[in-house]
Amino acid sequence: MLIKDSTQSHYTLSNDPKLQEGHAIELDKEDPIAHAIALFDIPQGVVYLDGNSLGPLPISAKKMAIDVVERQWGQDLITSWNKHAWIDLPITVGNKIAPLIGAKHGQVICCDSISVNLFKVLASALQMNGPTRHKVLSQQDNFPTDLYMVEGLEQMFGSHKCSLLTCSADQIESVLEQQGHEISVLMLTHVNFRSGEIHDMQKLTQLAHKQGVLVIWDLAHSAGAVHVELDECQVDFAVGCGYKYLNGGPGAPAFIYAANKHITSLKQPLTGWMGHANPFTFEPGYKADAGIKKFLSGTPSVISMSVLNAALDVFEQVNMEQVREKSVAMTCFFQRLVAQTDVLCGLTLASPLSSENRGSQLAYKHPAAYALCQALISEGVVADFRAPDIIRFGFSPTFLSFHQLFVSVEKLSAIMLSEKYKQAEFNRKQAVT
Ligand SMILES: Cc1ncc(COP(=O)(O)O)c(C=O)c1O
Fold first, then answer.
1. CATH code that applies to domain 62-316
2. Which among 40, 217, 226, 375 could bridge 222 via Cys, Cβ 3.0 to 4.6 Å?
3. Domain residue extents for the chain
4. Which atom of ligand 1 is nearest to the CA of 244?
C-alpha cells in the first residue's frame, strides 16, 4: 500500500503482505524530519505514544524552565516583566502558535485553559449573534468540558439566551440546514478525543456561515499534529491547548484565535485588568484593548508560558505539512502492524479506517483496554485509556520513529499472548487514566 504517490510522500509503505522490522528501519531512513527527535529529552527505552495527552519534554523547554526560575525570577525579580518581556508573553506565544494553525499574526493569544477560553469565545459569539438566535450546536460525543461550558452559560443566562443542542457527527449538516435560523454558534472539536475522527473544517464552516451561524473550533487534538488553515477556512473562533502536541508541559496555558474581522467589535465577558487598553493606568471603568489582548483576564502564568514558548522552538525545525505527512504514515504503519498480528485480533479499531479521516491517533476497543494499557506502560510503551473500553495511541511525529512503533506492537502482542494484563496490579484503577 502506498500512502500517497511516492513522488508526493516521503514515506513509502511496502506492499508486502507482512510488514517486518526492516520496513520500519527503511521508513526511518527516509524520514525528512527525523532530526527533530534529538530535540526531546525522553527516558531511554520509553516509547511515548501519549503525546496527544501530555507532550514530552523538549530540551529547549527544560533549559527555559531552569532559566526562568533561577535567573529571571531568582535574580532579576520583578524587573523581568520588562527585562525579559514577561508582559508580552501572551502575544509572543500566540504569534508563535499562529502559523501552526494557519493564522496571521495578531489573531492568537495564549492564556488560561481551553475551558475558560471557551467561556470567553462562546459568550462573545452568543452576544454577536443574538438576540434572536440562542442555540449552540455541538456533537454528543464532544469532549465533556466543551459541553459543560455551554451548560454553565445556559444556567447563568437562561435558556432563552443560550441552550445546548447536540447531535451525532453525521447529523451536523442536516441539523444546520433544518434549524440553522435558530442556531447562534456551531462549536466542534476538530479531531475527536476518543476516535480521532477529523471534521472537514472548511465545509462545515462554510455551511454554518450560509445559515448565519458563527463557528468555534476546539483544536486540542489538532494544533501541532494536523494541518489546519483557520484563516483560509474563514473560521470565526478557535481554542486549543499547549500541553498536548505543542509539548508545553503539564497544565501549560491554552490559546484563543479570533478572526481579525471580529476582534474590534466583539465583547468578551471576563473583563480583567490585563485585557484593559491601559492596564497600568489603573483607571476606573473597563476599556477593552482594541486587539486580541482583550481576551486576557488576569496575570499570565509566566513560568508555564515561558516553558511553552521555548517548547514551540521545535516547530521552527519542521513544518506542518511534514508533520501531517509523517503522522499519516505512522497511523497507517501502526494500523497495519496490528491488523497483521493474529494475537491482536481482539482489538477493534474505533478510529476511521482511512487516514484522511482521522487525526494523529488510533483508538482500539477491547474489554480489557485499561489493563492492557497498564501492562504496556510497565513494558515502557506509554499509551492511555479512555472509558469505557478504549486504548488510545497517539503519534507525535516530532519525536517518534517507525522502529519504536514496530517495538510497541511487538510488546503489545507479547502481553496479549502471555495474558500478563490479567495480573491484579494492572487492573487497579488509578485516579488519572
Ligand atoms: C478536545 C478537548 N477539549 C478540551 C480539553 C480540556 O482542556 P482544558 O483542561 O485546558 O480546559 C481537552 C483535554 O484533554 C480536550 O481533549
1. 3.40.640.10
2. 226
3. 21-30+319-426, 62-316
4. 14
Q: For helices 114-129 and 144-157, what crossing angle results, to 10°?
A: 50
What fold is seen in the domain 21-30+319-426? Aspartate Aminotransferase, domain 1 (3.90.1150)
Residues 377, 375: Cα–Cα separation, whole Å: 5
Residue 218: alpha-carbon gap to chain centroid: 8
Q: How many angstroms does the Cα of residue 8 sit away from the middle of ligand 1?
A: 34
| Cα end-to-end distance, the chain, whole Å | 35
Rounded Cα–Cα distance for residues 339 and 337 (Å):
6
Cite the active site residues.
143, 218, 243-244, 392
| Nearest C-alpha neighbor of 138 from the set 215, 248, 73 | 215
Q: Which residue's C-alpha comes closest to atom 13 of ligand 1?
A: 220
Atom of ligand 1 nearest to the CA of 254: 10
Q: What is the 3-state secondary structure (H, E, C) of 164-209?
A: EEEECHHHHHHHHHHHHHHEEEEEEECECCCCCEECCHHHHHHHHH
Atom of ligand 1 nearest to the CA of 191: 1
Calpha distance 428→433 (Å, rounded): 11
Pocket test for ligand 1, best of 115, 145, 392 (most atoms within 8 A of CB): 145
Quote the CA–CA distance of 265 and 259 in Å, as a whole number. 11
C-alpha cell read off for 322 = 511534514
Ligand 1 pocket test: pick from 193, 226, 243 the residue with the most ligand atoms within 8 Å of its Cβ: 193
pLDDT in tens, 339-378: 999 999 999 999 999 999 999 999 999 999 999 999 999 9
CB 107 within 8 A of CB 257: yes
State pLDDT tens for residues 289-336: 999 999 999 999 999 999 999 999 999 999 999 999 999 999 999 999
pTM: 0.96
Grid cell in block for residue 131: 438576540
- Asked if residues 5 and 280 have their Cβ atoms less than 8 Å apart, the reply is no
| Residues at CB less than 6 angstroms from ligand 1 | 113-115, 143, 145-146, 189, 193, 218, 220-221, 241, 254
